UniProtKB/TrEMBL annotation:
Protein name: Fe2OG dioxygenase domain-containing protein
InterPro entries linked to this entry: AlkB-like (IPR027450), AlkB-like_sf (IPR037151), ALKBH7-like (IPR032870), Oxoglu/Fe-dep_dioxygenase_dom (IPR005123)
Composition-biased stretches (Basic and acidic residues): 22-41
Every Fe2OG dioxygenase domain range: 140-257
Entry similarity comment: Belongs to the alkB family.
Region described as Disordered: 1-42
SUPFAM superfamilies referenced in this protein's UniProt entry, alphabetically: Clavaminate synthase-like
Pfam families per the UniProt record, alphabetical: 2OG-FeII_Oxy_2 (PF13532)
Superkingdom of this protein's organism: Eukaryota
GO biological process, one term: DNA damage response
Source organism: Vitis vinifera (Grape)
Length: 260
């Protein structure tokens, strides 16, 4: 685990020098970065939706800043008209290390320590962060979509395409926002080739995403619930207060289905 953490740090912060200067020593970087071994990110199950989990403190403010810098260096958004980038197969190193970090935060979180059987699920979706067949697949993710949203811009209700396997991760950066989940209707459930539970199509479950948070969707959450972010005035309300909308960056990691 320590070696993976070192690799993640090098991918995000750059390789350390051989200088004895304490400001550049790898150990001091490790201490300053508060990587997952030094904190215990907490998981919140969204009780209304099986297979939907939220980790609010996945990335520290320092890690978020470094990740945004790494994204900026890619040059994908050098023009104002460019607000989306997609990559398949060989992902940037920082995205690959994010995948490693997601696996680690699932395996070594306090939640799993207290509920060790839940990591493998044993056929029970409730209380399961990620089914073992997803958690141990290689690679964990091989498709990346990165979006930059300006105030007022969001995403329409949708279920991710069936060309992607089960198990989707979303990392939210910069502005806080509320992602709403709505259960698909019976027709859409049949079209997906799977059976869903009965919900009113108007039932919306709000999930508050803070900067640096991680959302995991698998099973029902992945196939039977649409997710959306409406950032128009009056829709981003949490605990009676409207969220001040600023620029937001999201990273979605998925795995392409194998071609038979």
């Amino acid at each position: 685990m320590e070696e993976k953490q070192k690799t993640l740090l090098e991918a995000v912060f750059g390789e350390s020098s051989d200088s004895e200067d304490s400001d550049h020593h790898p150990q001091n970087r490790l201490e300053d970065s508060s990587i997952h071994s030094e904190k215990n990110p907490s998981w919140e199950p969204i009780s209304e939706i099986n297979g939907l989990w939220l980790c609010r403190d996945f990335l520290s403010p320092q890690e978020q800043s470094s990740l945004l810098s790494a994204i900026e260096k890619e040059g994908w958004f050098s023009e104002a008209s460019h607000n989306q980038a997609m990559r398949f197969g060989n992902l940037p190193e920082w995205a690959t290390e994010l995948s490693h970090s997601i696996r680690e935060v699932v395996l070594f979180s306090d939640y799993v320590s207290e509920h060790m059987d839940s990591v493998t699920c044993d056929g029970d979706e409730k209380g399961c962060l990620l089914p073992s067949e997803i958690l141990w697949r290689e690679p964990l993710f091989d498709q990346l979509i990165l979006n930059v949203y300006q105030p007022g811009e969001g995403i329409c209700p949708h279920v991710d395409l069936m060309r992607f396997e089960d198990g989707i991760a979303i990392i939210s950066l910069e502005s806080s926002c509320i992602m709403h989940f709505t259960h698909v209707d019976d027709t859409e459930a049949c079209d997906s080739g799977r059976e869903g539970r009965n919900y009113s199509p108007m039932t919306k479950i709000p999930v508050y995403l803070t900067p640096g948070s991680l959302v995991l969707m698998s099973g029902e959450a992945r196939y039977f619930w649409k997710h959306e972010i409406n950032r128009k005035p009056g829709f981003q309300i949490w605990e009676g207060q409207e969220i001040d909308q600023k620029s937001r960056t999201s990273i979605t990691l998925r795995k392409l289905c194998k071609i038979e």
